[in-house]
Design brief:
516 residues; alpha/beta; 20 helices; globular
């Protein structure tokens, strides 16, 4: 009989008899740094205020990763190795190390339930944006507008233009696509369901979740393969069906892994599940475990991840120049206000970006875009870093990997945080754009298809890169965060104040002059 302790868990500290996600996080980051930066590795272990100071060590990961291609791979290997040895998996009171999860006896065989969409429509792609469906030239014009405004990078624009030029790419009847967290608000389910994809949807047993998935599939032209713990004969009664589907990523790692490994088709595995707080780290580790084991059994599998823009990244030199230019071109009013507000806030607002370039052993120089938002917390940062490490290492080892930075998106998980919601409402003050979920879904789904179809994409391991970290630079839609004139997290709090105030005070007219 299962209990709340079953499944993937943070370890219990033998001294305190408590779980500490901060301690585990410190140890993983310290191990990732251990062979490339011993000093910061030790400082991370000794850090007393991890929740406040974790950005220091995440930036150190990127700084050291830039310096050599080998460093980037070493960091990923060390971090993942420590992570795999840092979590426990429980079943029926028995504890296993996560690294040994496939030795856990499989208790239930997952059954595949098939449902075909009713639509006969041909696959088409458009981008919903501000009440319009952009296609063809209007979409190309909008892509150029985003590029000119610094919302997206050139490589992102090129990928979207390629997608516009190749409508045949969107017939996915030849692909079998696995969505971990299929009902995710920022995920691609809606579009895949209109592109004839074969979709293996994995999400929690939950009537609301599966009601959404089944309705989406029924309206489209795709084929759904859903997990069930019992054999189901009647797949047409959706009201009954939604009560019998689902698999738990945290508690059913061996079963899900076995089910996917036995699939006869080449799989495209998408890591898109999200949970709040420390559960996000656990579900990221669960997806990593499943995807790694499936990839061992099926080496032709591809991996897909969506990065958050609120992280710290290595970036091309021209991005740093763009941020520097924006800082130097500020209006007199903005200079006066930013200096005054910085002084009044004891320099908590409007800190300068650290725009020093770092020379890599490949002869190129890269900068760092530090867009971490402390309020999102170290668990969120760790969960996303684990995904970056796996993407970096898998691509290095010859696997096709699609990993792209998605823009800040006004999903429920974001807007339920009043501070983040207000910050995005006021972000336009700093030429940052937050996208609606339907816009992000469309763009990121198309980018995934581009990475699968275009042989020249950096997702293809046969495409040469000059540095492993360029995998995350390519195709970036950061919404403008990379090119903000200030350290982003010291400007966004003011954006939040602006966002709160604009609807209630005449502040908007005054501050709008900052950009003139």
């Amino acid at each position: 009989m299962s209990s709340s302790n079953d499944g993937l868990q943070f370890p219990i500290d033998p001294e305190t008899h408590k779980v500490s996600s901060s301690q585990v996080g410190k140890e993983i980051i310290a191990e990732a740094l251990s062979l490339v930066d011993h000093q910061n590795s030790q400082h991370a272990l000794q850090e007393k205020n991890w929740r406040k100071h974790y950005p220091i060590y995440f930036k150190a990961l990127v700084e050291n990763g830039i310096r050599s291609s080998n460093n980037a791979i070493t960091i990923a290997k060390q971090g993942l190795h420590k992570a795999q040895h840092s979590f426990d998996f429980f079943r029926d009171g028995q504890r296993y190390s996560l690294k040994d999860v496939m030795t856990v006896p499989v208790t239930t065989q997952i059954q595949a339930v098939t449902l075909k969409g009713r639509s006969e429509a041909k696959p088409e792609w458009s981008v919903p944006y501000h009440g319009k469906d952009l296609q063809g030239q209007t979409l190309l014009d909008q892509i150029q507008t985003w590029l000119d405004a610094g919302i997206i990078e050139e490589s992102h624009a090129l990928a979207l233009r390629e997608a516009v030029a190749h409508p045949e790419w969107f017939d996915l009847s030849d692909r079998t696509m696995v969505l971990f967290g299929a009902a995710s608000e920022a995920g691609p389910l809606t579009w895949l369901s209109q592109w004839k994809a074969n979709i293996i949807a994995i999400d929690l047993p939950n009537e609301r979740v599966w009601g959404k998935i089944l309705n989406t599939i029924q309206k489209g032209n795709a084929t759904l393969y859903a997990p069930s713990l019992e054999k189901i004969d009647d797949t047409q009664n959706l009201e009954e069906l939604k009560t019998k589907l689902g698999a738990n990523l945290l508690t059913q790692i061996p079963e899900i892994t076995q089910w996917l490994s036995e699939n006869a088709h080449k799989l495209d595995l998408a890591s898109i599940a999200y949970l709040d707080g420390e559960k996000h780290v656990r579900v990221s580790m669960a997806m990593d475990s499943i995807m790694s084991h499936v990839s061992e059994q099926k080496p032709d599998s591809s991996l897909m991840y969506m990065c958050t823009p609120t992280d710290v990244y290595a970036v091309p030199e021209e991005v740093i120049q763009g941020s520097t230019d924006k800082f130097s071109q500020r209006s007199k009013l903005e200079i006066i206000l930013s200096k005054g507000i910085s002084a009044l806030s004891m320099k908590q607002f409007f800190k300068d970006n650290d725009q020093n370039l770092i020379t890599s052993d490949n002869g190129k120089s890269y900068g760092i875009a530090d867009c971490l938002v402390i309020e999102q917390g170290p668990n969120y940062a760790l969960a996303k870093r684990i995904q970056q490490w796996r993407a970096t290492l898998a691509r290095h080892q010859g696997q096709r990997v699609s990993i792209n930075i998605a823009p800040s998106t006004t999903t429920h998980s974001v807007t339920k945080n009043p501070l983040l919601k207000a910050a995005f409402n006021g972000a336009s003050l700093f030429d940052v754009e937050a996208f609606s979920p339907e816009t992000t879904n469309s763009i990121m789904a198309a980018l995934w298809i581009h990475d699968l179809r275009n042989p020249k994409s950096v997702a293809n391991p046969e495409t040469q890169m000059e540095h492993p970290l360029e995998l995350m630079m390519e195709g970036a839609n950061h919404g403008g965060l990379w090119r903000v004139a200030y350290l982003a997290r010291t400007a966004l709090p003011f954006a939040a104040i602006y966002g709160f105030a604009t609807d209630k005070l005449p502040l908007k007219k005054v501050l709008g002059k900052l950009k003139k």
